[in-house]
Amino acid sequence: MIKGTKLFINALKKENVDKIFGYPGGYAIDIFDELYKDNSIEVILPRHEQALIHEAEGYAKSTGKVGVCLVTSGPGATNLVTGIADANFDSVPLVCFTGQVPLGLIGNDAFQEVDIIGITRPICKYGVTVRDRKDLGRIIKNAFYIAKTGKPGVVVVDLPKDIMLELGENDYPENVDIRGYKPYESVHVGQIKKGISLLKKAKKPLLLAGGGVNLSGANDELREFVEKCNIPVVTTIMGRGAIPTNHPLYVGNIGMHGIYAANKALEDCDLLLSIGTRFNDRITGKTSEFAKNASIVHIDIDASAISRNISVDIPIVADAKTALLKMLEYASKCDCEDFLDEILEYKKKYPLGMKSSILNPEKIIKAINNKIPNRIVTTDVGQHQMWTTQYLEVSRNHELLLSGGLGTMGFGFPAAIGAKIANMDKNVVCITGDGGFQMNIQEIATAVCNEINVIVCIFNNTNLGMVRQWQKLFYGKRYSSTCLRRRKSCGTNCQYAPSMCPPYTPDFVKLAESYGALGMRVTNEVEMNEAFDRALLEQKRPVIIEFMIDSDECVLPMVPGGKMLKDVIMDC
């Protein structure tokens, strides 16, 4: 007979867990005590639970393994909520264990008691409170299975304190049998043949790759398929890297900040073969006009995503890799040379590029391409994220990790820490904004204490840049609550005169140094190159590089929300 805490540790070992992202507290302290006594599973201690779950996301996204979180009850659990929604939106496999008050106190408004399962039920794949010691092993086994199978997602397991201290059998099941949960693991060959038949007839076929291709590890199969068919490829931002961005058949990202040629290809195609995307509003624009000249074949592991936002002609429920392997059996070269030539002309006529001759995001990101090999790049959310998806080269050895569906500021830096902990042999870079970085800035301490070199590139335009861009274009330059230099003494209606603005708070270089990190400020290209060279020399501490960029830089092209893709803004 063993305690529930000991069974918990044994279960993690059976699931090959070697790292937990955890933060202790009163109703999880017994589990942490058992982890201390066992010492075979490394506990990564962050400085905030929201950062903790983003670190687990970075770990999971960069490895394909299930990320594991462990926090206490009450605020420890509720601080995970944003990360749970973020990970579930982006199909990241996580198991989140939360401490809970003893069973007899549940419902009595006990200290640090919350119904975390009720709170997270709409935003996770599955959630359960363990109410009987004999069910503990089975529930943990099911949790890992549910998180990583089918469409991956987040499972929340609530662990009452008395259950974890109760003695019971050391039973951990070898197999899983969950009534009502049978992930679809095959593909309907008849639907595949119908899709291939339409592809062979098409004169203007286009393949749209979403994040599902990257999640399933179907990158090689996708490249082989498009080369065999000789068809152009566009991606969502989550699908970027599904095919190397320097591949001759790759056009670019589509959607709100997609390149002109990619959006034009989508507008003109007569067949759209979409794999692993749910057609969200950021890529469709006005849905009634989306690919209106095309027959649409939609492959997705989630049956509920098919024809939810865009009606399709041939639905195929399958994992991207399973579907592509079957499609390769029937694929052949398409007659679409004229369409490829048209797309190439559009790329030449409307190239992607920033006009500014001073230090700008394009130059910084291209320097990352050139100077930082074997890399994983994470981003926060905002203008810097969109610039990264436009200019960063992504391939098998150069990964990109994003917060896509929820768009969570504060994701990038902790995700980079998690990715680095999982990939010590790689260079890990976080591209962030001065606003987003401050949302989990305390994790500098986590990086320092774990002795890891994460390179943080802060694009400091002294503003919440993406909101400011919308205010500039659509709200008469009324910059409400977006200037991060603003102080109470500035008055009510700022006219934005930089020479009269107060100094920026904080001083990122001094702050980095106070944590024991290396801090640098860059204002020109010479300093930029020197900073990257210096950053690569560090081995055991993070490097914070603050790049001073113009507040008026815009992410272009831009399709206003709800408009057609052809209603593109090319100048700002």
Short description:
The chain is an alpha/beta fold and 572 residues long.
How does this structure look, described?
This protein has 23 helices and 20 strands. The strands form four sheets. Strands 3-2-4-5-7-6 form a six-stranded parallel β-sheet, sandwiched between helices. A six-stranded parallel β-sheet has the order 11-10-9-12-13-14, sandwiched between helices. It starts with a strand and ends in a 24-residue tail after the last strand. It is of the alpha/beta class and 572 residues long.
- Percent of residues in helical segments? 25-40%
Rg over alpha carbons: 25 Å
- Counting DSSP H or I runs of 4 or more residues, the number of helices is 23
Main β-sheet, spatial strand arrangement: 3-2-4-5-7-6
Beta-strand segment tally: 20
**Beta-strand fraction estimate:** 15-25%
- The low-confidence parts are none
Counting helices, strands and paired strands, the structural category is alpha/beta
Largest sheet: 6 strands, parallel
**Oligomer state of the chains in this structure:** single chain
